[in-house]
Amino acid sequence: MKYITDVPAEELDGKYVLLRAGLDVPLDKHGDVADLFRVERAAQTILHLRERGAKVIVISHIGRDPETTNESVARALKAHVPIFYVPDILGMQAQYARSNMKNGDVLLLENLRTDPREIANDPEFAQELAAFGNLYVDDAFSVVHRAHASIVGIPQYIPGYAGILVREEVERLKEARAPISPNVAILAGAKFETKEPLIKLLLETYDHVFVGGALANDIFKARGLPVGISLISEGIPGPEVLEHPKLLIPSDVTVERPDKQAYVKKIGDVSADERIVDMGPDSLALLAPLVASAKFILWNGPTGMYDHGYGAWTDRVAEMIARSDAQAVLGGGDTVAAIQQAHIQLNEHIFLSTGGGAMLEYLLKGTLPGIEALNKKII
Do residue 152 and residue 251 come from a single domain? Predict the structure, then answer.
């Protein structure tokens, strides 16, 4: 894979660079960007190109509603880099703005998903986008696992490079796929049937694998333990997971009763009308020495239903990792949000991934469609 940081400045000066950024960010009720994490990370590559005299055309998407515009993203980006927002992708406005760019200028075009050809990976759409640039840079790690036109289509027509963020993500996730010992992996979230292959891989790779969140509910149920009205998956964990000696699960849980009051209970004591919403203090005590002694930590997913207000134990896990001297890779939107909302000061050993699904898929496969696209020859 080629990196844009290896391209000499003189080869970027005056060139049109089409930059696919990962600016799919949450908006608050006022329509402003609610979390600046991805915006701040995207600014790195934009500034790198701008400072070398490139004419930078940023393309991205936001949300699942094709009516959502990039206007809010533009306002947030302007705090980090001078940009001009064009509410257009390939039309006359975009063409005119491009033709008037000077060296170092930055354009942000409209939400790519306003055009259905983006998700459909339409080759004509990819070719039309490619015509805007002399070079293409993929810095959108959060969607590099998607076979969309702006990810896998464009680099078929113009030279493609990985941006600063994608390079760092890949390098750190390579470390996570072959961690130094002692190590521990913490994986939570839901949908066991989609994450079981990764859990199996982690069990073979890591010294300890702690499974929490709704994933743990599936293991409880498979072992014949009561889970009440807790969230469970359609898939059932197999014996290769359930009986693995490296597998760890919560030893106690926080449950929510019908009156919305929360209590800590031992596994096996959950009532039929209760919902498991997080782990408990004994589970944290189980994790604590493993985190303290680890040289490498992988964490994806909050330990409980963070978006329902059950984030106390997730915050405590984050605090433990922050105090550790271990190299750590943390990811998943809720995980990163939990760390930020708890105002936890992380050290230089800790890497926050911008990817949720992309992070998990890379850990499993060691590559992604967008990465493979950068390695292919131009048509």
Answer: no
